[in-house]
Amino acid sequence: MKHIIRIFKFGSSLWRYYIGVGVFTILMAAMSQLQPLFTKGAIDQITKLLSGGKADIDLVALYAVLIFVTDVGQTLMSNIGGYLGDMVAVKLQRLMSQRYYEHLLTLPQAYFDSELTGKIINRMNRGINQITDFIQMVSNNFLQFIFSTIFTLIIVAIYAWPVALMLLSLYPIFIGFTIKTSGKWQSYQKKINEQLDIASGRFAESIGQIKVVKSFLREASELKYFNKRFETVVKTTRPQSRFWHKQDVLRRLVLNVIFLLVFVYIFVETAHGLYSLGTMVMLIQYAMLIRIPIFSISFVVDQAQRAVANTKDYFDAMDVRPDLTDDKNAKKLIIQSASIEFKNVVFHYPGSPLVLKQISFSLEPGMKAALVGESGQGKTTITSLILHLYAIKNGEILIDGQNINKVTQESLRESIAVVFQEPYLFSGTIRENISYGSAQATDRAIISAAKSANAHEFISKFKKGYDTEIGERGLRLSGGQKQRIAIARAILKDAPILILDEATSSLDTKSERKVQQALSRLMKGRTTLIIAHRLSTIASVDRIITIDGGIVQEIGTPEELENSGGIYAKLLNFQKIHTTAGEKRLKKYEIEAI
Ligand code: ADP
Ligand code: MG
């Protein structure tokens, strides 16, 4: 029940529409409820006439006209109500999608590390469709149900109270039956939804990395994996649907039996002369009419159960609290010179062993520093921590002496530009992608950034220049071109701190040189932390920080560490060996021997 209330609360800002829909459905119901009275009037006049009495033919015709008028009225009301219903549905859809997106965007990186994109999307769609359907269905049926039930039962009771009682008894029986089926139906549905989420999660993954799928010839196995989920869905739906329909047969049988009693009673008592022919036809019509609210109430109950089952994952996602929110007293980060300091930083990912046991180092303003360590030692992790994408367990990270836990995340991230190892781009034009670094950038600024990034030249060669569409994730550009756009984006951001995860993908020497040149321009005057993948880059920095086993092994200039026997010295030796064995050892450090 709590769940249902929550669903209603979600759409509560649209209450005017619900009332509108409700009013029209009631008007519609009222018109259909009047028709049996008109029929009765007409039949009673005609029977009088046929049995030799005096009757008003005009009145009979008037009843026919009244039936016509209420028919037309119903048509109009149902269409106006339908229009309002469509508007409610689409507004609700907008509201729910927005809130979901808005909420997801506040969630910490850790949430996205463990959830598949496709699953996240599927949950949203299912939740939204279900809630929209449900609320629309309730506003279409619920008021009408209450109105029709009360109206019909009162009129029937006036003419034949035993019939009213029999019809009344249908409600608890029908609703009871429906509720009884609920638990079992939902447990089936939970299993179905799990499988659907897995299927669409994998679907999005394999389409997103279609190159991998194709190059490893895994189309068939991906399809098989997908089909298997749907096989389970089919297998689960079979008993679920059988169960539901068996229950439905039962409850309808009960309904049929009670109707048998109702008809027997009406026919026999009319034959005994208790009711006029007109009254008999009217009672029959009301008995038929009352089936609609009975069915619709069990439909409402049924849909409510579906809504609970199908919105569970949506609400679960909405309930994930962003555990990495700004401190109440968080201030804006004030950058003076952009020094960075790690003080005894301890960190592990949620539910995983320690990655960083004790990391301490400091970078003076404008300094270029390289992080060096074997793959998996926590280099990327350190950069994520500077961005405050995760909370550290112990220690402090300071920027210009300010603890990053105590400043707003917005002001922190404003001060840091990142060039990722993989240049993630968006679908859209080159211009849009570069201006992702600064939304208000002028065309001149964009072009100047592209020039510094050595990208202007190749962009100008495209027929549409900066308006060239680059496809999702920049698939229509080469590796080096993508990197230079990502660099232009970072240049445009113009932040005092730069995090650089050097690309490992080897480019041809010409684009390599262009990328390196662009990077050195970008680094100028900024405090830079590089995860270097080339010995040449490492040799050119002001400080090398080597990491091993979760702690800092050494810190020093390249010259200082050249012969210290530490990791950097080892790397230089591996390079000197010039053998595949040496290269292999370098690879362990994600380093290319150039
Ligand atoms: P590096 O960049 O030095 O190769 P990373 O910082 O990426 O290393 O990873 C350090 C360690 O943390 C690795 O053991 C890795 O398995 C683990 N790790 C990385 N990302 C996550 C994550 N999102 N959740 C749990 N563990 C992670
Ligand atoms: Mg890494």
Task: Write structural notes for this entry.
The protein is an alpha/beta fold. The chain has a domain at 2-187 and 243-319: Up-down Bundle (ABC transporter transmembrane region fold). 65% of the residues lie in helices and 10% in strands. It is built from 20 helices and ten strands. It has helices at 2-10, 15-50, 57-106, 109-114, 117-159, 161-208, 210-215, 219-271, 277-319, 379-386, 409-414, 430-434, 443-452, 456-461, 479-493, 509-523, 535-539, 558-561, 567-577, 580-588; strands at residues 340-348, 354-363, 368-373, 394-399, 402-403, 416-419, 497-501, 527-531, 543-548, 551-556. The strands form two sheets. A six-stranded mixed beta sheet has the order 6-7-8-3-9-10, sandwiched between helices. A four-stranded antiparallel beta sheet has the order 2-1-4-5, with helices on one face. α2 packs parallel to α5. The two termini are 65 Å apart. The mean pLDDT is 88. Magnesium ion binds at residues 379-380.
Task: Map the helices and strands.
Layout (H helix, E strand, L loop, with lengths): L1 H9 L4 H36 L6 H50 L2 H6 L2 H43 L1 H48 L1 H6 L3 H53 L5 H43 L20 E9 L5 E10 L4 E6 L5 H8 L7 E6 L2 E2 L5 H6 L1 E4 L10 H5 L8 H10 L3 H6 L17 H15 L3 E5 L7 H15 L3 E5 L3 H5 L3 E6 L2 E6 L1 H4 L5 H11 L2 H9 L6
Parallel strand pairs: 3-8, 3-9, 6-7, 7-8
Antiparallel strand pairs: 1-2, 1-4, 4-5, 9-10
The site of adenosine-5'-diphosphate (ADP) has 12 residues, from α10.
